[in-house]
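User: Can you model how 2-acetamido-2-deoxy-beta-D-glucopyranose sits in this protein?
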Amino acid sequence: MASAPPPAMATATAVALVLLLSSVAVVTVVAKECTNVPTQLSSHTVRARLQSTPGAEEWRWRELFHDHLNPTDESAWMDLLPLAGSTTAAAAAEEFDWAMLYRTLKGGVGSSAAQAGATPSSSSFLVEASLHDVRLDPGDEVYGRAQQTNLEYLLLLDVDRLVWSFRRQAGLPAPGAPYGGWEGAVVELRGHFVGHYLSAAAKMWASTHNGTLAGKMSAVVDALHACQQAPANGGTGYLSAFPAEFFDRFEAIQPVWAPYYTIHKIMQGLLDQYMVAGNGKALAMVVAMAGYFGERVRSVIQRHSIERHWTSLNEETGGMNDVLYQLYAITNDQRHLVLAHLFDKPCFLGLLAVQADSLSDFHANTHIPIVVGGQMRYEVTGDPLYKEIATFFMDVVNSSHTYATGGTSVSEFWYVTDSRMMAEVYTLSSVGSFMSEMILPGSTRSV
Ligand SMILES: *[C@@H]1O[C@H](CO)[C@@H](O)[C@H](O)[C@H]1NC(C)=O
Ligand SMILES: *[C@@H]1O[C@H](CO)[C@@H](O)[C@H](O)[C@H]1NC(C)=O
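Assistant: Here's the modeled complex, given as C-alpha cells:
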C-alpha cells in the first residue's frame, strides 16, 4: 500500500509483533515440535506408508505418536495471549463474547469491528478478469485440448457416487457406490475430493458455460444441502462425509487424519459455487458450516483453553483461515473474521513475522495454505504484518528452499538447505517409495 497505515493500525501491528516475538522466544525452546505433532502423522505420504503395512497400522500410530509427542508442547503457547488472570478472562468465562476474543487476539488495543473490516482501497490490488469473460479457442492444440479433457473428466463423475458418503453420514438413502482411493467409504479424508470437484466445476462452467456441467454441479450442491438439512445433522450446519466424532478426536489431540483439511475443501468448493457460479444456496450452506465449526472452536476454548485450540492446529487444517477470510469479505460477519484468525497458526506465522528462516523440518503441505490464508488476511483486512509474512515466506522459499525441478519439498517436508548432501540423501532414499505411492491405483494427490 502506498499510504502510511493509520496510527491505530500501526499500534496494533507493533503490539502483534511483540506478542509474536514473545511467543517465538518460547517456541524456540521446543524447536519445530510445535508443528509436526501430529501433523507428521497426518502427512499424506506418511499415512500412505502406514497403510501399506497392513495389520500394523494401529501399532505404528501409537509408536509414532509417542516418539514425537513432546509434553512441553502446550507450554509453548502459554504466553501467546494475555488471557489468564486478566479481568477480561473472568468476564469471558461468564458469557463468551466474540468481540472480546477478537480484541484479545488483536492485542487488546481496542480495535473495533469497523477498523478490522476496513478494506484497503480496491485500487491497491490487481483486479482479476472474470472467467466468464475469457474463452479458450477449442481448436487450440495445447490449452484448448487441455480444457476439453478437463471438462470431459468432470462430466464423467457421477453425482450419486460423489455424495455417497455424505448421504450415509446424514442417514439418507445412498444409491450406487462410493468412489475409491481417498474417497473410499472408510478413509478418513473422504469428502475432500467433492470439495475440489465443486471448485473445479464452478470454474469450468464459468469458462465454458456448458449446460450439462451446470446441471451436474447444482445437483451435487442440492444433494449436499439435503444432507446438511437431514435430521441426523439436526439443523447444526454440520456437513461432511465422515461423522462429527472425528472432530472430538481432533480436539482431544488424538490421532485422526486431518478433518479440517477436508472441511476446508468443502467450504471452498461451496464458496466457489457461490462466487464463481452464482449459487446462493451454496453460500447459505457455507455460512451454516462456519456456524457449526465456530461453535466447536468456541466450545474448545471455553471447556479447555485457547492453548488447547492452538495445539490442535498441529493437525493439518488446510486453508481454513483462507476460506474464512473470503467468507468474511462477503458476509462482514465478525464471527467469521474471528474464526479465521483462530486458524492463523501462531507458532508458524510468528516465526515468519520475525523473519526467521526456519522452514526446515516443517510439513510443507500443512503450512503453505496457512501462509496463503495469511496473505488473504492482508487482502481482506489490510493488516500489513500479514503482507510482510507472505512476502518473506516467498523470498525464503525462492532463495533457499527450491529444487531444480521447481518443487519446494520432498515427501511433503522441507529439509535443511545449506547442505547439498542432505538434499541428495533425502531425494535418493525417498524417491522409490514416493514413486510407488504416486502410481497406486485410485490414489489422489492434492495439497
Ligand atoms: C458439455 O460438454 C460436453 C463435452 O464436450 C458435450 O458433449 C455436451 O454436449 C455439452 N453440453 C451442452 C449442454 O452443451
Ligand atoms: C526467485 O529467485 C530467482 C533467482 O534469484 C530470481 O531471478 C527470481 O526473480 C525470484 N522470483 C521471485 C518470485 O522472487
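A couple of observations from the model: The chain has a mean pLDDT of 78. The pocket of 2-acetamido-2-deoxy-beta-D-glucopyranose (ligand 2) is lined by residues 398 (CB under 6 Å).
User: Helpful, thanks.
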